[in-house]
What we know:
Number of helices: 8
Radius of gyration: 27 Å
Helix content: 40-55%
CATH class of the largest domain: Alpha Beta
CATH architecture of the largest domain: 3-Layer(aba) Sandwich
Strand content: 15-25%
Number of strands: 11
Distance between the termini: 22 Å
Order of helices and strands: EHEHEHEHEHEEEHEHHEE
CATH superfamily of the largest domain: Response regulator
Strand order of the largest sheet: 2-1-3-4-5
Number of domains: 2
Amino acid sequence: MSAHILVVEDETDLAAIVADYIDAAGFRTVVVGDGASALAHIRRSPPALVVLDLMLPVGDGLSVCRELRSFSDVPVIMITAKVEEIDRLLGLDSGADDYLCKPFSPRELVARIKAIMRRMPSPAQPPPVAHIDEARRTISVRARPLTLTPTEYALLAAMIRRPGVIFSRAQLLDLARRDEWDVTDRAIDTHVKNLRRKVAAIAPDLDFIQSVYGVGYRVGC
């Protein structure tokens, strides 16, 4: 999904033009016309960046930016018709990341939005719940190794490689028979029970191997 940009501007014609340019640049724009609505929207649905007009009804841009900084570090580009140096300083001291004076080019605004977005770190990805060491034929859950039989390794590794995919007992049976010639359907349930017990010893809160009634099993990582 494209990044969500909030435009806070009470001049409806200008807001529409700005939104069109931002949308054309590949972002998703939401427009509100006053400070109170802006703060409510940011709390409810945090945007990736805020374009904030200085002169607003129901809370001016400076007070909105200061309140915003009490609960969010979202980047802010302040827009204003005031060009005096003191206004620039006040805007930046309130927590704005950039400052643009009216009249301005919508293309310049989009360029500044892109520049700020490029500087923002990418969201950290959580580490995987499970890790397979193919060379050693071992599996770790939350960075702690499991002690597995060859058949348990084969079954669990197959499910981890395809998280969310449901494996029927017949599919698991085919995997198990590579290591055990006399394995049965009932033995698959026993293997899964043992795997759950070993995972629970490491992560008792983790619903890792899930049963799908009448179908089979899947890994939910």
